[in-house]
Amino acid sequence: MEGKQTIMRRSALAAVAAIGSVSLLLAGCSKADDNKENGNKSAGANAATKGVVNASTQKGGTVTYEYSDVPDSFDPGNTYYAYMYNLSRLYARPLMTFKPGAGEEGNTLVPDLAASAGVPSDGGKTWTYKLRSGLKYQDGTAITSKDVKYAVERSNFARDVLSLGPNYFQQFLEGGDKYKGPYKDKSAEGLKSIETPDDTTIVFKLNRAFQEFDYLVATPQTAPVPQAKDTGIDYVKSIVSSGSYQFQSYEEGKQAVLVRNKNWDAATDPLRKQYPDKIVVKLKVNAETIDQDVQAGDAIDLGGTGVQAATQAKVVNDAALKANTDNTYGGRLVYMAINTQVAPFDNVACRKAVEYAIDKVSVQTAEGGPIRGDIATTVLPPDIPGYQKADVYATTGNKGDVAKAKEQLKACGKSTITTNISARSDRQQEIDAATAIIASLKKVGINATLKQYPSGKYFTDYAGVPTFDKKQNIGLHMMQWGADWPGGYGFLQQILHGDAIGASGNTNISYLDDKQVNEMLETAIATQDEAKRNSQYAEIDKRTMDLAALVPLTYFKVLLYRPANYTNLVSTAAFSGQYDYLNIGTTKK
């Protein structure tokens, strides 16, 4: 999931901090009752990666989130950013989800709508779930297994209407390649490979074994949607809540306000606590303003990508301010996708020229230095199972190699290349990184021009649309990706598999459709032995780098500032190091 997240993606998300969390400083936790008027006592740097900071059961007040752009969508079936996966759980309960826990504890998969984890049969090709009893929507009507079935059908098979989420179900469910979705299919039966023998049972029949299916049903695409209330792309304006909060108002591109769902029952939900009276999400807020509000204790950065460069310099050089930060890996890779379908990058030698040309130290510096990420040389980050240290395009000091780059240019029959590189207009660090890349490429005769697009439309209208990229000669795309779940398949599939490519909304923006990579991914996810599965992911990583489909830049690290007036803050691996949004409260009235 893209950071998209990511994710999960993120995205996402499409949004895993195992190595990062164990290497961080150990610090204790504080209680909300210890707060003073000027904010909480510092729990210490990285405290939220180890436990709950400002733990409290206090109810009331308003929790405010701020974001510099707009999300892809609040619709749980049409989103792929990690921060939206995180936030959506407040109003949309999937079958499974991640435990609200700090660091690696946040990777623990737990039942949500489901009463227990899935029961596999037929070697992992059939998965059965039973829903908890007493589940209700915000209007008091019962949630049934048919609503979960419908949610999966609308989110994965009506791709001409809802194209923003991942398409795993479409790829893996029997008949998924032929089913056209509920907006075109008017039959009562729907997709035959999702069975609902009664109102509390749902059975998924797959076309091949999928050993990590519990992770797949943890996406918000399994959050129930009553068919009678679905209005397609406009459902975002009237989402029916299955969670602890419901929408009071929604102003597109401006703000969303959530209030307590009166028909939410704690007896059916061991995860949520319903602490604040109100949750406000403010959109299109200036990034510097967000930093100021977070430091004042008045807001949480919804995107969870960390403080801006100016704020970073301020907080890391002030011991008191730094004590209120959390710095961790987030299971994410910052990279540049090389579009394998845009000439001349359809020639692998031209792609290899790009690999050798880039001074990764200059990119790391542009992103904010080592505190924002270690220099990357593989597709899989070190905190994702399957990672193996390697460097196919090694250069001295990671500063690029002009001679080798020009040698590859010559091999692809070019002395110069003219192309464009895309980046998200509201992500200054991404723009700065792209600018550093442009300078590196120019030294070898590759002349790239920066094209900026808003993150809310980056995948739907621009970088994720193959026809647009070809027409605009965009051969290079700035990208950040986080694992859809803590596993090699959850990281690799949506950015490398040919089946993930569609007419729009793509996250495989290298547009890689390599038969060997596709087959290796399918073999891996069907392999029951976890150690063997992880070794297969490492081989997929190597194959991808041999194909020069993308340029790993940094293994992303996030630097979050903890807002003093908010309670129950945990930096969680499950959502790329973001704070877990499920039970955040406030001491402010």
Structure description:
This protein has a six-stranded mixed beta sheet with strand order 15-19-14-18-16-17. A five-stranded mixed beta sheet has the order 10-11-12-3-13, covered by helices on one side. A four-stranded antiparallel beta sheet has the order 6-7-9-8, with helices on one face. α9 (348-357) runs antiparallel to α11, α15 (488-496) packs antiparallel against α16 and α15 packs parallel to α17 (530-546). By secondary structure, it is α/β, with parallel strands linked by helices. The protein is built from 17 helices and 21 strands.
In short:
This protein is of the alpha/beta class.
List how many beta strands DSSP finds: 21
Main sheet makeup: 6 strands, mixed
Helix run count: 17
Spatial strand order of the main sheet: 15-19-14-18-16-17
Give the overall shape. Answer: globular
Estimated structural class: alpha/beta
Strand-residue fraction?
15-25%
Rounded to the nearest angstrom, the distance between the terminal CA atoms is 35 Å
Please tag this protein with its features.
589 residues, alpha/beta, six-stranded mixed sheet, five-stranded mixed sheet, 21 strands, 25% helix, 20% strand, disordered N terminus
Please outline the helices and strands.
Blueprint (H helix, E strand, L loop, with lengths): L1 E7 L1 E2 L6 H5 L39 E5 L15 H7 L7 E3 L10 E3 L7 E3 L4 E5 L14 H13 L10 H5 L21 E5 L2 E5 L7 H4 L28 E7 L3 E6 L17 E5 L4 H9 L4 E2 L7 H8 L2 H4 L2 E14 L9 H10 L2 H8 L5 E3 L26 H10 L5 E8 L3 H15 L3 E8 L4 H5 L3 H6 L2 E9 L5 H9 L18 H11 L4 H17 L3 E12 L4 E2 L17 E2 L3
Parallel strand pairs: 1-2, 3-12, 3-13, 16-17, 16-18
Antiparallel strand pairs: 4-5, 6-7, 7-9, 8-9, 10-11, 11-12, 14-18, 14-19, 15-19, 20-21
Helix pairs in contact: 9-11, 10-12, 15-16, 15-17, 16-17
